[in-house]
Design a protein that fits this description.
6 helices, transmembrane, Tyr-kin_ephrin_A/B_rcpt-like, signal, Ig-like_dom_sf, alpha+beta, membrane, Tumor Necrosis Factor Receptor, subunit A, domain 2, five-stranded antiparallel β-sheet, Immunoglobulin-like
């Protein structure tokens, strides 16, 4: 089933380590990814190559009898490989690895979730090669459970006798727990006077929680593939709960009395009077419902570090300020020590715990930052507006002064005219030839009652710009008219 999961690495290898990556090789992997058939890279790997592949999320049902996770999701066909599994947690437990490099999980728990990596090392054509595959594993379970309420009549209501009664009751129910592949958990007990005879009779109320995930609960689903195994889990959970309810009803009909004995006290028969059942669809403590598992949207996923889920809660919540959570599947968060707090909810380590004074300073600075921003923002906007207006003004002024009409009206030479006169470059019309003589330009004055004449310098008398030497000193004569 794992060989059919993926055919090519989703995360491509580091292309900087490959000398040549042919177009044919890329097309081969793309077509393979679309067709779902296994394939291997068609190019030869260079020496000391180390590939890293980031796999997708892997979900393993809690209390799975046996789950095998391969090091590589594809058949590599290498000779004499070695496998090395590593977990990101510092206090990781010992791994059970098969000869083929498969990591085995037995009775998977929420705290087994985390990030795992496997490095496969081998030799090809005398060159040592290695590939690393990384997995993110989450525990989950199909929601479903059973709450049982038992009422017993008793002559005594002392704590010592109640404890002995509960011990005997659990011993009686243990074979039933093993036969039905379920788990029983005592969730509460109380003792109060009976309404019929308050002075002589008492009622002992016992609350039990039944989990359908007992030893070998999934033995009928082991041969299923990844797509249909969740549906098999659903059917198994429902069937187990129905069988447990029937078995408990039959058991307490056949066993009406629970015997309790003590030193120097005769045995007491505690009589069973009532058995009640309530089916639930709640998540276990440390689990919450998300949409990360697409094939089971209502399944309960283990809460990651920084989050928790108390019993009978369907959602994972962030750890409050002043607490943190290190593990997957936390039912509660750990408070910081020595009066320390966290800056924000969802802390994943005690390293996020800081002194309260430091946090107050950070919060104070963060509160002052918007005020400073509101003060500086209008000033910056005003400076930008003044800069734009000044640029527009000088651009308009320079453009207005450089136009020929403006120079005629004002009678002043513009910057361009001064530069032209400095280098003695004549202004010629489009039809001017080499033999054109002096020309005059007569135009009306601004007042309309007089004319002024501007003589164009003759090309014959104008020195060549290219012929100017160090001994030639260009002269600029400006006459104010």
């Amino acid at each position: 089933q794992w060989g059919r999961m993926l055919c090519a690495p989703r995360a491509w290898p580091d292309l900087g380590q490959l000398r040549v990556l042919g177009t044919v090789g890329i097309l081969t992997l793309v077509l393979c990814s679309c067709s779902g058939q296994p394939a291997s890279p068609p190019w030869d790997l260079p020496g000391s190559s180390n590939w890293e592949h980031q796999r997708g999320l892997i979900f393993i049902h809690m209390e799975s009898s046996l789950y095998s996770l391969p090091c590589s999701p594809m058949e590599m066909g290498v000779e004499d490989p070695t496998y090395h599994w590593v977990q990101d947690r510092a206090a990781a437990k010992l791994f059970s690895v098969t000869k083929d490099g498969h990591l085995l999980f037995q009775h998977f728990q929420a705290e087994d979730s985390g990030k795992y990596s496997c490095t496969i090392s081998y030799t090809k054509r005398g060159i040592p090669l290695s590939q690393t595959f990384r997995y993110s594993i989450f525990g989950y379970h199909v929601p479903g459970g059973l709450d049982i309420v038992l009422l017993f009549h008793s002559k005594l209501c002392e704590d010592e006798w109640t404890k002995r009664f509960l011990q005997n009751l659990q011993e009686m129910l243990r074979p039933l727990e093993f036969e039905q592949h379920c788990k029983l958990q005592l969730t509460g007990t109380s003792c109060f006077p009976s309404l019929s005879d308050p002075s002589d009779e008492f009622i002992i109320q016992v609350q039990l929680k039944v989990s359908p995930f007992g030893p070998h609960w999934d033995e009928h689903c082991r041969s299923k593939d990844m797509e249909s195994v969740t549906d098999c889990y659903r059917r198994t959970v429902q069937n187990n709960l129905e069988q447990v309810q029937l078995a408990f009803t039959t058991f307490f009909k056949e066993h009406k009395f629970v015997h309790v004995t003590g030193v120097d006290i005769p045995s007491i028969h505690i009589t069973n009077e009532f058995v009640g059942f309530l089916k639930t669809e709640e998540c276990d403590a440390g689990y919450g419902q998300t949409k990360r598992l697409q094939r089971c949207l209502d399944c309960c996923i283990a809460c990651p570090p920084g989050m928790f889920s108390p019993p009978k809660n369907r959602q994972c919540s962030l750890c409050p300020v002043g607490t943190y959570s290190l593990i997957y599947g936390a039912a509660s968060c750990t408070p910081c020590k020595d009066g320390m707090i966290t800056k924000e909810p969802g802390a994943i380590s005690m390293l996020f715990c800081v002194k309260e004074e430091m946090t107050k300073q950070v919060v104070a600075v963060m509160h002052k930052f918007p005020v400073l921003l509101l003060i500086l923002l209008p000033v910056l906007l005003g400076i930008n507006v003044l800069f734009l207006l000044s640029c527009c003004y000088w651009f308009y002024k320079d453009h207005h002064m450089s136009s020929p009409r403006a120079s005629k009206k004002t009678g002043k030479t513009t910057t361009m005219e001064r530069v032209t006169s400095f280098f003695r470059i004549p202004r010629q019309g489009p039809q001017a030839g080499p033999d054109v003589g002096p020309a005059s330009d007569t135009s009306a004055s601004p007042g309309g009652d007089e004319e002024y004449t501007r003589e164009a310098p003759s090309l014959a008398t104008t020195p060549n710009f290219a012929a100017v030497t160090d001994e030639t000193t260009p002269m600029l004569e400006v006459k104010d008219r």
